[in-house]
Design brief:
Structural class: alpha+beta
CATH superfamily of the largest domain: Fumarylacetoacetase-like, C-terminal domain
Radius of gyration: 22 Å
Bound molecules: calcium ion
CATH architecture of the largest domain: Alpha-Beta Complex
Number of strands: 26
Distance between the termini: 51 Å
Number of helices: 9
CATH topology of the largest domain: Fumarylacetoacetate hydrolase, domain 2
Largest sheet: 8 strands, mixed
Strand content: 25-35%
């Protein structure tokens, strides 16, 4: 498939640094506001945010299936309601307007002043009004590490794991955008298995390095989405820190699974990078053995080569990168996750968020959580000031970044950054 906006030869009349996450081939979507401007839809090139409401008002988005309310709004949901064709056409139009050699916008200096806003002047908001949030558990390395630590190294994967993209229904209300601080959760734990549980602040707050995808409207209740159709229902992806309280989790998760250990906060990066923009970075998913059931089979390259990293920045101390992983390590692909999610007739809706599950790679420095990196606290990590971390301390900031590159064009996600404040 050829998408005009992905042409690697394109350059923009807006200056873009070579290491920028936002070349003209990216054109992600998000929601922003400024001291003067109400929340609205934006895109981004280099260090500038593009005000799509102003572009619409000035007539640059004519002959597209959009109206004022699709841009003059505090979520991307209206825009996503237009489906893959609508958002693809919109991104192609933005590309034309920002491309070197096309001066329709560039020649109108007073329009340019109105439409482009320095990125450091805007506040990015939660991009999507999330209806339902589902979290998968699709990294074989992560599931193996957790099974090794807590059950049996010889039978680390539970019997269903290689057959089912395991997942659970999470909580949409506590999904927050990068920059919003998180309080250490209070809860019930049982530090000593021979004594009664206790109540207090979690002692084992962790991050989970994940990515998430956002859906268009799916099919009606009762219908299923096949692996072949799944990409038509996926708008784009973001970085996702699925905050977790390991001590609360250990005590509460039997028999129904994650609850308060997981629902106190999950942080997303503000820019949704479209699946279209990630097209050049497709790679094969891992070989799947045993052969999956027929409804989970798929053809073609359905994984993506997206480099990921996590850093911890203690208060007043330079950040330390503690993990480098890659989205391509995921055992189950997004098309399999969506096919599985709907195989029983469960409907997905515009604005649903699907987390990948913690993305751990094969080597110890690629593990996607503190639980694994510090191996239950047995191998503490060193910060730049010499202090050690087994889990996240109060006033630590956790930063996740991600980008795809093929040597020609680098498409990035920006970052998701959030600080852990003391318990309330
Ligand atoms: Ca998770």
């Amino acid at each position: 498939m050829s998408i005009a906006a992905n042409n690697p030869a394109l350059t923009s009349w807006i200056e873009v640094q070579p290491n920028s996450d936002f070349p003209i081939q990216n054109l992600p979507f998000g929601i922003f506001k400024t001291a003067q401007l109400t929340p609205r839809v934006g895109s981004r090139v280099g260090d500038f945010v593009i005000d799509l409401k102003s572009l619409f008002v000035l007539g640059y988005l004519e002959n597209l299936p959009f109206e004022m309310g699709d841009f003059d709004t505090s979520s991307l949901n209206n825009l996503m309601k237009k489906g893959k064709k609508g958002t693809r056409d919109l991104r192609n139009r933005l590309s034309k307007l920002m491309e070197s050699g096309h001066d329709d916008l560039q020649k109108n200096e007073h329009h340019v002043d109105q439409v482009l806003i320095a990125a450091d002047q805007v506040e990015m908001l939660l991009p999507v009004e999330i209806g339902d949030y589902t979290d998968f558990y699709s990294s074989r390395e992560h599931a193996t590490n957790v099974g090794t630590m807590f059950r049996d190294p010889n039978n680390a994967l539970l019997p269903n794991w290689l057959w089912i993209p395991v997942g659970y229904h999470g909580r949409a209300s506590s999904v927050i955008v990068s920059g919003v601080d998180v309080h250490r959760p209070m809860g019930q734990t049982r530090p000593n298995p021979n004594e009664n549980p206790v109540f207090g602040p979690s002692q084992r707050v962790d991050f989970e390095l994940e990515m998430a995808f956002v859906t268009y409207d799916g099919k009606p209740l009762g219908d299923r989405i096949s692996t072949g159709e799944a990409e038509d229902y996926i708008f784009g992806m973001c970085l996702f820190n699925d905050w977790s309280a390991r001590d609360i989790q250990t005590w509460e998760y039997v028999p129904l699974g994650p609850f308060l250990a997981k629902n106190f906060a999950s942080s997303v990066s503000p820019w949704i990078v479209t699946l279209d923009a990630l097209e050049p970075y497709r790679v094969d998913g891992p070989a799947q053995d045993p052969k999956v059931l027929s409804y989970l089979e798929y053809e073609g390259q359905k994984s993506y080569d997206i480099q990921l990293e996590v850093a911890i920045e203690p208060e007043g101390v330079e950040e330390a990168t503690i993990c480098r992983s890659n989205f391509k390590y995921m055992y189950w692909t997004m098309v399999q996750q969506l096919a599985h999610h709907t195989v029983n007739g469960c409907n997905v809706r515009c604005g649903d968020l699907m987390g990948s599950g913690t993305i751990s790679g094969p080597t110890p420095d690629s593990y996607g959580s503190m639980l694994e990196l510090a191996w239950k606290g047995e191998k503490p990590l060193k910060m730049k000031d010499g202090s050690e971390r087994k889990f996240i301390k109060d006033n630590d900031t956790v930063i996740m970044r991600g980008f795809a590159t093929n040597g020609e064009v680098r498409i990035g996600f920006g970052e998701v950054r959030s600080k852990l404040l003391p318990a309330k």
